[in-house]
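Exercise 4. Each item below gives a protein and its sequence. For each, produce the structure-token representation.

Item: Alpha/beta hydrolase (Streptomyces endocoffeicus).
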Amino acid sequence: MAEPNGARPGPPPDWWTTVAEVRGARERLAVLGTQSPAPRPGPPVAALVHGLEGGWAGWQPLAGELAGHCRTYALDLPWRAGNRYRWRHHGTPAHWLREALALVPEPVDILIGHSFGANAVLEHLADRDGAPQPRAAVLLAPFFRPDSLRVDWPLHDAALAGFRQIITDGVRVGLGRRAADLDPEVLAAMADTTVERIGPVGFLSLFLQFTGTTELDLGAVTVPTLVLAGHGDASLSEDRAAALAAAMPAATVRRRPGYTHFCHAEQPGDVGADIAGFLDDLTALPATTPFATTLLTTKE
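Answer:
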């Protein structure tokens, strides 16, 4: 993604400033930003929703790419790295997302979620309880179960294997450049330790979120939504992507050959360009233009 003058936008600071925080008896919620609220009208405001065992800091590469297109707030949610998963007994992911959004000091125009966080956004969009909705949404590497995919023990076992692989990839991404010099057995041991700490409740939180996507009323969602995933990402394989596109008329689903599950951290320039183009297209469309369901698969 490039600025109009050809220069790439600069990265955000190496730290984020807490602009709002709530420490309750059950969970802690926080909102972090790199800028003070600006008078309206101004650039659209985006809230960033991290995935399971993720955190606000993982958004810094993508926030830098989006700096010329929107103002960003990173949400620090109960499913952050190291949590004990007690939050699952006191509210759905969509509930906790709405609690965090209420802390953002200005209206949120765009919701951008990754993985588990993307599905929290999807649940929020499909919930018809009258909660304020964004003008647009972006789902990075979400999960989706077509109605034809039966929930049985083989699916459970396959999901558990996929969960372990995602945790391994997440540990690798979190290590950054250090991962290249790390013995594969050490990386595997670190991932096993993380999976053991997360435990059954953490995995089942993800599994139930995945299997429950079929029950969401996605046909009633009117918020224009961009869905991005990689060709090799099993969380949204080709058939699941097609099923999501068919179930959600407001969605444009794109699968990219070079995107990983952690594309917001590993391919931030490409993801930023996709999001910027999506937002530019929305701005150019008349308000009365319908948003048709689209499935776009980029070939090698």
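Check: Residues 109 and 134 are 5 Å apart (CA to CA).
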